[in-house]
Amino acid sequence: MATLKELQVQELLGPGHRLCAGCGGAITARMTLKAIKRPMVVVNATGCLEVATTIYPYTAWGVPWVHGLFENNSAIASGIETILKAKNGGKLDTDIIVFGGDGGTFDIGLQALSGAFERRHDFVYVCYDNEAYMNTGIQRSGATPEGAWTTTTPVGAASPGKVGPKKDLIAISLAHHIDYAATASTAYWNDFITKVQKAAAVEGPALIHAISPCPLGWRFKTEQTIQMGKLAVQTRYFPLYEVEKGKYKLSVNPHQEPLEKFLKMQGRFNHLFKPEYAGELEALRNQVDQKWNALQELCQGRHPTWNGSNITTRPTPTPTAAN
Amino acid sequence: MSATKPGWRQLTRGAVVTQPSSAREFKTGSWRTQKPVLNEAKCTNCLFCWIWCPEPAIVRGPKKVSFDYDYCKGCGICAVECPVHAIAMEEEH
Amino acid sequence: MMKPQKVELVPMSGSEAVAKAVIQSNVDFTSAYPITPQTIIVERLSDLVATGETKTSFVNVESEHSALSACVGASLAGGRVFTATSSQGLALMHEVLYLTSGLRCPIVMAVANRALSAPISIHGDHSDMMGSRDSGWVQLYVENAQEAYDWIMLAYRIAEDERVALPFTVNMDGYVITHSVEAMSLIDDETAHKYLPPRQPLLKLDPQKPVTFGTLTLPDYYFEFKRQQEEGMRNVPAAFADATKEFADLTGRRYERLVPFELEDAKVAVVSLGSASGTVRWVARNLRKKGLPVGALKIALYRPFPHEEVGKMLENIDVVIVLERALSPGSHCGPLGSDVVCSLYNRSAQPQVLDIVAGLGGRDLSPDSIEKIFRTGLEATSRPTGLEMEFAGVRD
Question: By C-alpha distance, which of A117, A112, A114, A100 is closest to A45?
Answer without folding.
Answer: A100
